[in-house]
Amino acid sequence: MHRFGCVYWIIFLLHRASCYHDYYYNYTLDPVSRQLEEFRAEHPRPIGLLTTSSGEPVEIRDTVTLNTEIFNRNFHTELTSHADRERIQERLVHAKGVGAYGYFEVTNDVSKYTKADVFNGIGKKTPLVGRFSTSIQNLGGPELSRTLKGLAMKMYTKEGNLDFLCLQPRVYLYKDPVMFVPIVRSFRRNPRTNLFDFNMVWDYVSNRPQTLHALLWLQSDVGIPNGYRKMNVFPAHTYEIYNKHGDRYYVKFNFISEQGQDNLTNAQAMVISAMDQDYYSRDLYNAIAEKKYPAWRLEMDVMSLSDIKNIDYDPFDITRLWKEGTYHTIVVGRVVINRRVENNFKDNEQAAYNPANLVPGISGPQDFIFKARRMFYPDTQNYRLGVNHNKIEVNMPRYERTYNRDGVPPLRDNMKDAPNYYPNTFNGPVPYVEECRPKESLLILENQTEDLEPSNYFYHNVLENDAHRQRVTDNIASSLQNVVPSVLKKTLRVLTLTSTDLGRRVRSSLKALRAAAAKMDTAERYRRLAQCFEMNMNPKY
To answer: How far, in Å, CA of 142 to CA of 208, rounded?
Structure first.
């Protein structure tokens, strides 16, 4: 080992000599830009000898292949073959995201409503991992487009992992599971042009108007939040929960930003995106590094079983809001994000969130979207990460005993020598009996007709004034500029049926946009936009 020690010190001295740096400039850099410098400060010497994956030390001459027996260099062959295989299938939606760790803290007694251990005991803290993401962009796409933003979180409770998958609109896009694939494809790139195509989007929306409500949320001011830290997020489903006596309640969970909800205008988003397409991820990383830990207040909108039976709308329809006055809201606790991931691939790309990951005290939603999710989320995670994805460190629960074993690694202890079948008489893991779990379940039959009332309510009541309504219609009109006449005609009809005022405003705004566009070609339009950016950036203006 003496020879390896000499090599170690030679490499160390070369490393230090090549890393001369004027530390004065550190004071002007943000935490993202200082990451590598911080690593070197934490590790003033190389962290060890370089080896192959089998542990064989790599001699410095083996890091060169020119004029050598190239295939005798294990370092080179392993390096290249691993690079060919180091990417896994990116997520179909929410491909681009950033992960972070934190905790959930109980701040209010909610034992009246649920026996879930994670929500009981004021002051109790439960570790969690979260993933903030944008829905439509590919893995390397920009973050500031007007698309769904989300926060998925996994709480490592004493009773198993509890996952919440949240979006920034309060409502979901559709209520029939068969619509998932078509709507995703309509929002993705055209298979021939490989470009995003609003003809596809509005063609689908005009044929399935139930999607309009969520789309109106996206076209409103909340459509482009000012970073992940400043958006409210919602799981959308109505969850059934129960207490230790077996009493059932129905709740919607709301995660309200303690930083305050803040949004960007189209112009602001365009300027920021031109300078930094990773603005959201950078903002979150820097905030945690500077100990400005983002937090969200967890609330529950609550109905009892008797409330459910005496209202005039479907509270399980995830494409509509609950009506004011039909529920009450209580605070449960707060989510705090306070630790950056150590490695993006390990803790973010490999993280698998499943809304069916529930705990005793939370039966879960009863709608058809959730029932489909129970099947398809594990299916996609088995495809992306393998059948043992819950044995990957970031996904592992605190406690796990199962009869599943073998398959593609990781395997952990693979249940060692325990019986591999159930039931058995050889003391393998056994199920438990929960006396307070409700013995009855609701049978929900959802209406299949298209209902424009939720969209009408949002436009006239949730949007707080005419100025906001005009911004929504301007955004819609902008997306309709290059839509073909047949799709445009049907879209305008649906908008007008939703609200006469909405249809009128969109027509008027679209007419003005097209008149302006007719006076200049695309190059001239972009040149004028560039001038606006320059004026925004130049202090003399």
So the answer is: 28
